[in-house]
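Throughout this chapter, every protein is written as a compact record of paired, labelled lines. The reader may check this reading against the record printed directly beneath this paragraph:
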Amino acid sequence: MFYGCLLQTRLQAGQGYGNTLNCVLTVYRNESVVGFFKGMSFPLASIAVYSSVVFGVFSNTQRLLSQLRHGDPDSTPVLADVALASMVAGFISVGIGTPVDLVKIRLQMQTQPYIQANMKVNPTVPGFPVYQGPIHCFRTVLQKEGIAGIYRGAGAMLLRDVPGYCLYFIPYTLFCGWITPDGCISPNPSSIWLAGGVAGAISWGTATPMDVVKSRLQADGVYLNKYKGTLDCILQSYQNEGLKVFFRGITVNAVRGFPMSSAMFLGYELSLKAMKRDQTETNP
């Protein structure tokens, strides 16, 4: 779930953006079209590994639970097994996703002024990035902050992804069951696409509050360390900006969650079908 866009990061961790449209116009005016793609090279390079691990863990955990419960790994899993497999996938995803998300957010936020109590604090010269690229960012954070720095925001990400993946895979499973015609062994591609999109919108929409906290914690170290941890970030954000701060970027999250998840689930299901077909042909 860590593949977000610059707009989401700026809205959640930045200052001075009234709404999504204002954020779009400000980024375009100050940084042109290139600005919308800042920090995405590292996530794009690792998306295949991340997705395969998450979906692989979910699928294999689900098969293991079906084997233990029914004696057949291919039997239809009960909802409790789907939920447990989702939680395991969410837990594992944090180990891979936190460093990648941190690099992405640091690169996206490094040219933004840090504003506190109507005062701008700019330790670096405006217009000159702190990091030269994803590898330099990763190496710099590791040298200055150690492993703890690389995994800054992991607690918030855990609180986001464990329930987030439950609200990702469970709705998908339920919607697939509801919209698949009776008598069909497996859902058709259009059903997969629709169910995956709805599940993605639900998951990303409900994950927004902890996504805000995670983004703020990871962006914090670009200039100075304002937050001591997840709870401190929640309290400071609430005290300074009220409850509405935790819903920043919810529209962007929900809208982008639909097509992204549709493609992910469609690719996942088609890959499973292809592998099962090859296995059947190999072992008639």
